[in-house]
Amino acid sequence: MAAFADAPYRVLHVAGRRDFPGLTAPGPHYDLRDYMTPFGTALAGADLAVARSGGSVFELAQYGLPAVLIPYPHAAADHQTTNAAWMERGGAATVLSDAALTPPALRAAVDAVLLDPGRLRSMAAASAALARPRAAADVAREVLAAAAAPPTR
């Protein structure tokens, strides 16, 4: 919260129910919530996401949303670092390590994207290009084809 206390833009911070009671929004530009449903509404209305990098990276791509990602270093098999690197290689995200996460570092990473309209647009396009909106249908087609194939011996 300290990173965006004086931000020149609106911030929507979904803190989670566990931490919410001890938090106070630093100003009228800061919309602090414990929970939000449907969450897709927040993603659809956002210009940039700041997030960990679990499976939610695929939702970010679905919405063509650029991101500043902070992988959780203790996630199983360090999969969040892998996910964040995938988004970064695709041009859709910048990655800030958990060890480097400070309010000034986070603010600098966000401002570098959010306050540069050209970079924001190119990252949004890159994020959308990573999406696979027909993935479920593609997987189902492969499963049905495998089920219909004669057994191999």
Structural notes for this entry:
With 153 residues, the protein is α/β, with parallel strands linked by helices. The protein is built from 6 helices and 5 strands, in the order ββαβαβαβααα. It has a 3-stranded parallel beta sheet. It has a two-stranded parallel ribbon with strand order 1-2. The longest helix is centred in the C-terminal third of the chain and has 14 residues, at 117-130. The mean pLDDT is 96.
Number of separate strands: 5
Strand order of the largest sheet: 3-4-5
β-strand amount: 5-15%
Structural class: alpha/beta
Largest sheet: 3 strands, parallel
| Overall form | elongated
The succession of helices and strands, N to C, reads EEHEHEHEHHH
Quaternary class: single chain
Compute the average pLDDT: 96
- Please tell me how large the radius of gyration is: 18 Å
Helix content: 40-55%
Distance N to C terminus? 61 Å
- Unreliable runs, pLDDT <50, ≥5 residues? none
* Tally of helical segments: 6
